[in-house]
Amino acid sequence: MHSSTSGFSIPEDHRAQLELLTAEWQIIADLSFCDLVLWYPQDTSFVAHAQARPVTAQTTLPQDMMGITAPTNIIGLLRQVFATHAPVAVDGEYPSGPPGVSAWPVTSKETTVAVVTVHQNLVSQRHASRLEEVYRQSAHDLLVMMSNRIWPAQDSKASSTSHGNPRVGDGLVRIDAHGLVTYASPNATSAFRKLGIREAVDGRQLSRLVTNQLDPGIPIDELMPTVLFGRQSARVDIETRKIVLSARSIPLVNQSGERFAALVLLRDITEIRRRDEQLISKDATIREIHHRVKNNLQTVGSLLRMQSRRMQSESARQALLQAMARVDAIALVHETLSQTMDATVDMDDLLHRQFTMAVEIAAQDRLIHTQIDGSFGELPGQLATPLALVVNELATNAVEHGTAATGGTIKLLTKRQQRVGEPHPYLRVEVIDEGVPSNSDAPTVFGSGLGTQIIRTLVEADLRGTITWERQRPDHHGTAGTRAIIKIPLDH
After folding, report:
1. Cis peptide before 71 (omega within 30 of 0)
2. Per the domain annotation, does 167 fall within a domain?
3. What is the overall mean pLDDT for the chain?
4. Are residue 165 and residue 76 in the same domain, yes or no?
5. pLDDT tens across 303-340, in order?
6. What is the CATH number of the domain that holds 40?
7. In this predicted structure, what is the pLDDT of residue 436?
8. Whole-number pLDDT of residue 492
9. Higher pLDDT, 241 or 268
């Protein structure tokens, strides 16, 4: 099976219609046991815009047709259909067309915008079974609806691309305009048996057969009658205590808008539903773990805070307060992760809170202002903890070594950049303090303290980035602050 679209220029209204068609036309390929190719006019010829191969039969066109100009043996066929807006069937009279190829117009506002060719596998032709007859007739009905721009319906794409969507091979039921079963494929019959329907279904009303098997007391989806009567293109799950079936209806409508039949696709999604429930349970468990880790870390932080108040040594008290700040930073990360299970996390709220909290803790009784500019944006969750710790350490160092006794201002600047010739952007994070009066332009040399070691280890090992410290030029007050610059590659 293959279906995609090419990249040449197509008007937006045509592209939307063709995308809707190619999202749905796998059903025709499977019902007709044929390959489909969508040809779009370009210059004086046609170019293959999309291709679909049947899952139910061997492919007729093993080569990839995407982007190929129409071969000479079908160009006349394509031009006729495009000009007359009328299909040319396999059994029609068209001597210059290849055997086993029919062509159907894709119309828009009484104008043909593209042509679909249907390629039969003549090598495997044999006496058709009842299943093949029903399938091919259903494919023909859909092709006629397509050429009359009745199908696909605008609301059908959502049900065709959703998780666990039924396919032709999973089970097909054809019903008439009154909802009576005219044919059920072997796989559909098997699905009915799992549901508890043992008797023959031909001539029976599909909606009544199914609803009789539902468990009493369980609410019935309001879409279920609509789907099982084939009145609307929609999908519904039929759920009992033992099995979950996904049912999707495709009304078959004539040119006058009258529904003369419908196709109902059935798929046993019991295992899919069970796995979904397991994933939901695992997600909830992971969130609960993050929540409990956050609570435990907050308890540790509280114990460190209590211990620091009892310390007689000022240096020991400061060491405990710094340890408390690091624990709080990690706790804040787990609090954020407990509220989402997405692969990426919006870091702005987390890191802005972390930066502000770190400055307040380090400032103690001094008045330290914070300025934040730029956005971290969405980043992978595994970057949250190391980045939060780095921001915490840089903010703490900036307050301790880059502000006056009367207070000051600490800035956090963030932006995404990309060097010329490099495939991935990088995140640039700067923490800037006001420093002390100095006339030196020499770079600041950071010591080997614990905070600096933590920063270097986290940036280089966990974030796979780089960090540098630069002394800023003195301003008109003679103040020359320090700028810590982190560059983190965003190719995680």
Report:
1. no
2. yes
3. 84
4. no
5. 887 888 888 887 887 778 778 788 888 888 877 777 77
6. 3.30.450.280
7. 54
8. 55
9. 268
pLDDT digits (tens, 9 = 90+) for 333-367: 877 777 776 767 888 888 898 898 888 888 887 88
Contact 88, 102 (CB under 8 A): yes
Residue 189: domain span: 156-268
Determine, yes or no, domain membership for 5: no
Q: Summarize pLDDT for 2-50 with one digit per residue, the tens.
A: 444 445 577 887 888 899 999 999 999 999 999 999 999 988 899 999 9
